[in-house]
Please model this.
Amino acid sequence: MNKPPSWTSREESLLLLNAYLDNELDAASVLDVERRIGSDATLKAELARLVDLRNALSSHVGKERASEALCRRIAAIAEVPRIGATPEPSVRPRRFDWRQLAAAAALAAVLASAGTYVGLQQSASTNEIAEIVAGHQRALLATAPFDIASSDRHTVKPWFDGKLAVSPQVIDLADAGFPLVGGRVDVVEGKPVPAIVYRRRQHVISLIAIPEPGSKDGGEPLAHATRDGYSLLSWPGRDFKYSAVSDLAENELEEFTARWRSGATAN
Amino acid sequence: MDARQRFGEVVLPHLDDALSLARWLTGSVTDAEDVVQEACVRAFSAIATAKSNPRAWLLAIVRNTAFTWLAKNRPKSVIVTDDEALFEKAGLEMIDRSHEATPEAVLIAKVDSEQLHRAIAALPLAYREALVLREIEGLSYQEISSVMSIPIGTVMSRLARARNLLIQRIGMAGRGKAGAA
Model:
């Protein structure tokens, strides 16, 4: 093949440009790409076209919605009771297999005898994670992932106040590409808690605020968890512990939390 | 956890994603519904193998089901080639040509929905699926790599080429329109 002398680096630049657009580069490569864009007008024009294309795709090509009939047919495959038609109790009674109980007891005994209790501490938060993710999943299956639809934080915040007598911080991130779409009430550990709903392209982000009086954001690192393909990032905020859950790629969810936290601290 | 409950948690929340992928692979919503149903039957029987990322797991099943469906119903649309090098070379040449002509860039911002849908539908299958997985499903490169069973480097080049082809096609269609007017 006949390659112009700069071919390899040009080809590489294009791939990097796409990965840059997709937020898939590490910090060092981002700097490198930004340097290249700065010094190369062709690359700059290329990036502008890619951004235009992305905007056109997100405004003209949406996700398909599975029809009621299709959902029924699919649910029938496993004869799964339909979720949404009749609201399920939020906290399902757990049934324990005696073997699991026996295994757990044996494990606890081993841990106790070894003098390590560390692993056992986990169960409460694992349960919390499961409930937060389940709440998000239920919301996705419902007609709308929110009970109140509004892109105005001055509508969402008082709604929580009226409904739950608590008001978590509601930050407007529309400029950063995470528009606010509404709010709903989830149940975590038996208590109703506010869930603020944002969108990123076709993805829904639920931000669960669990009241924790006196807590504040001291810049602690995020706590990461994944469950059933959903990422969950948690951090302490003003009087609440916040957890963002979504099926977004984790780096994008991190971008969301970073912007949200800096917005919250500035507020 | 029993299989039914697992199916309810792992498969049902991702039906819109499954349908969207199948729609762009088969070309129509009606065909996509058949593919999704077939894929969900497969998913249910393989539910025990569901991975920690069920959405990517389900999309991989949908993709494979769609390919079987295409091979049977649209045999000409599936280019089955082991010659990846030939395929990639065609892509490289497309990129090479692109940087001489850029004046149609303005047209991208003004593209209408129908034009864009036609341009996506006209992409070669391997490029189209990478594009759909990224732009419509919002998967990460890592997830696309696992759904399509290709290395991340190939994900990168297919995406770059898919977008480049789209930009070219939109530019050409826009130019045609302008000439006719």
